[in-house]
Every structure is written in C-alpha cells, then in structure tokens.
Specification:
Helix content: over 70%
Number of strands: 0
Structural class: mainly alpha
CATH class of the largest domain: Mainly Alpha
Order of helices and strands: HHHHHHHHHHHHHH
C-alpha cells in the first residue's frame, strides 16, 4: 500500500482497514436505529418522557453489570466474544423490526431496549480491546481519532438517511438496515488476519475478577481524576442536544430550522475535531486539559450569544473540542493502564459515561427551565472550568509525588499504569 499521510497512518494495517469499514457501516446503522426507535416510541405514546425512559433502560445495565463485563473481557478470547455480542445485537435489531412490523407495544420496546443495553455492556470492553489489537501501540491514538471521525460521519449519514427512509418506508426499514450493519462487523471480524493482530495479555488468575479490577482502579489516582473530570464534562458540559433545543426555542427564537442548523454545525465540528486529533502524533494529558479548558470557557461564553449565527460559531469549536477530549481520554486510558486490566478499565469508563448521561440530561434540562437556557449554559461553563482547573492541579500534584517517590527508591514506585507522568 502506498505511503499514507501521518494523519491516516492507522490505515496502513490491513486489519484496521477492515475495522474502519465495519465501524462506519455499524455507526450509520446504529444512528438509523436511534432515530427510528425514538420516533417509534414518540408515535406510540406521544410522550417525550417515554423516549427518555427508553434511553434510561438502555443505560441502567451498564451501571449494574459493567464491572463483570470488564472482568470477562480480560479473561476470555476477544474475537469469539465480539462475534457473540455482535450476533446478539443483530438478533435484537431483527426482533425490533418484527415488533414494529406487527404492531409495537411500548412494553416490548422497553424490553428490547433493556436487552440491547445489557448486550452493549459486554460488547463495549470487548470491542475496545479488539480495536486496540488491530494496530500497534504507537498507532492506537491515531486509530481512536479516525474512529471518532468515522463515528461522526456515521451519525451524519445515519440521521440524514434515516430521516429520508423513515418517511418513505417506515421505521421497520431502519431496524432491518441496522441488523445488516452488525452483519458487516461480523464479516470484518472473521476476515481479520490472526498473524496481523497485536494481542493483549490475558489476566492471570491472581489479577482476574471484579475485586482485582476495583483495587487497580482505586490505586491509580491519576485515572480516578480523569474519570471524575470526564464525568463533569460529560454530564454538565456536553448535553448539547438539550442545550441546543432549549436555546433554539428560547433566547435565539430560531425554531426547528435553527435547531437543525445547530445540529449540523455540531456534527461538522465533531468531524473537524476528529481530523485534528488524527493529525496529532501524540494525544497527551496536557492536550486533554487544554481542550477541556477552552471548550469550558467557550460554553461559558455561549450563554451570552446574541443570535443564532454567533451561537453556531461558538458551537463549532466546542464540538471539535469535545471529540478531542474524548479521543485523548480514550487514548490515555488505554495506553496508560496495564494491558491485562484493559477490559475492566474500559468498562469503568463506560459506566462513568452512562452515569453522566443519565444524570446530565435531566440536570441540564432542569437548569434550563429554572435559570433559562442562556444562564444555564453560563453556570455549566463555570462548573466545567472549575472542574478542569481542579483536575489540572490534582494531576500536577500526583506527578510531583510520583517523581519524588521515584527518587526515594524503587519500592515506592507504583506499578505500570498508575501515576504515569502527565505528558
């Protein structure tokens, strides 16, 4: 294969090319189903609360089962587990299509949502570990950044194509196409060349299980700081679907057309952020904190936007920064933790994200109702700026302590993955 630019270096690896193609197809199918499922529930019930309950049913299994899912991912072979979880996702998408075809009941939809969430709990750390095995360690950050671009592209394609197809053929088609998208992932996993994989070690018995993973997480103070920062940024600072809708119908007086414009701008920003992350040779903690500081400050200022165009102009770098934060966070979480603990750490990260999503949406909505959407954005921006500064100070203290301990004797130096220099 001819030489690729550094921003695309992960594509040199044949297994990653399979992974990337499947990721784009799967992301497109997933967002088609998200659109179709939300619209189906809204059509049946006429209630936005019912749509929120569907999202809640999908999130609860992550909070309840995440630790065990991560422990399994660290003990069982990755590719067979990936094939099992993707097959289950395929069957659930088919079941949803059949339910919609023969007359959906909201109870059946809630059941499918909960089962999908349960499968996703086990699928997340497994696919995360498999994604880390299709490229060497030095190219993992680039692979994650390109993955962000593919996910953003899949979201744009899925929502736009889904909107057209839903109007022409109904929601059943969206669910059926999502089932086909899982088939693409299964084919890609089967087609991967075993000799071209970069395997991760399996946890030995003494380091296996939920308790061992919990002890590892509690000992890695740097990782706890990153998770705490990620929780605040995701819950208070990243629920822009709520904020954009509230600003469009409130202070900006832009209506549904304005909301559509802002959604498009946000999607474009996520692609730009992913491309910038892919261009970077290394995604460090310093870069993560800088992006968090800039996006938090912009969020604070966005509440003072006098009109739709001004708000959109501020929203674009916020969206780019959000993807940069996620990519840098994911890279550091994977590279700075012990490889035999990778599944449990990824599961913990997924639990943090699920908790932030479950809390953040209602909280941001409540703030918008009580304070007004513009003031809610400003207050949330102040909170995220403060959280970023606190995280930076905590990480600096940990780094200095690590350097001091390293000078006093090797017996005081933490194991690999704990308290790595901030970079």
């Amino acid at each position: 294969m001819r030489r690729l630019p550094p921003s695309l270096r992960a594509l040199v690896h044949p297994n990653y090319r399979l992974w990337a193609a499947a990721d784009l197809v799967s992301s497109t199918g997933t967002w088609m189903q998200v659109l179709g499922l939300n619209w189906l529930v809204l059509t049946i019930t006429g209630s936005a609360t019912a749509v929120g309950l569907t999202i809640l049913f999908q999130a609860v299994p992550m909070l309840a089962l995440g630790s065990w899912a991560g422990a399994l991912a660290d003990r069982l072979p990755t590719r067979p587990m990936a094939l099992v979880t993707q097959t289950l996702h395929l069957l659930l998408a088919v079941a949803l299509a059949l339910i919609a075809l023969h007359g959906a009941s909201v109870g059946a939809i809630y059941l499918i949502a909960a089962l999908s969430g349960a499968v996703a709990v086990f699928d997340g750390p497994v696919m995360g570990k498999l994604g880390a095995q299709v490229v060497p360690r030095d190219d993992l950050g680039n692979a994650l950044a390109l993955g962000s671009v593919l996910n953003s592209t899949g979201r744009i394609l899925g929502m736009s194509l889904g909107g057209v197809l839903a109007g022409l053929t109904g929601n059943v088609t969206l669910f059926a196409l999502n089932a086909v998208s899982f088939l693409a992932v299964i084919v890609a996993v089967l087609a991967m060349r075993r000799e071209a994989l970069f395997p991760l070690p399996v946890s030995p018995p003494e380091r296996a299980g939920v308790r061992a993973g919990l002890r590892y997480l509690l000992a890695d103070h740097r990782l706890l700081v990153l998770f705490a920062l990620g929780f605040v940024l995701s819950s208070v600072g990243r629920n822009y679907q709520v904020s954009m809708a509230a600003m469009s119908t409130g202070p900006l007086q832009a209506g549904p057309q304005g909301f559509g414009l802002l959604s498009t701008v946000f999607a474009v920003g996520t692609v730009l952020g992913g491309l910038y992350a892919a261009h970077r040779r290394e995604l460090t903690i310093t870069l993560l904190l800088a992006a968090a500081g800039v996006t938090s400050t912009l969020q604070l200022l966005s509440g003072f936007s006098p009109g739709l165009i001004t708000f959109a102009a501020v929203l674009l770098p916020i969206a780019a920064g959000a993807v940069l934060i996620d990519t840098a966070m994911g890279t550091r979480v994977q590279l700075d933790t012990a490889e035999d603990m990778r599944g449990r750490v990824l599961a913990a990260q997924g639990m943090v994200a699920a908790g932030a999503g479950a809390l953040g949406g209602p909280l941001v909505g409540w703030l918008a109702e009580v304070l007004g959407p513009d003031r809610a954005l400003t207050v949330a921006g102040v909170v995220t700026v403060a959280a970023t500064l606190a995280a930076a100070a905590a990480l600096l203290r940990l780094r200095r302590r690590h350097e001091t301990e390293a000078q006093t004797g090797p017996e005081l130096v933490p194991s690999r993955g704990a308290l790595q220099p901030a970079g």
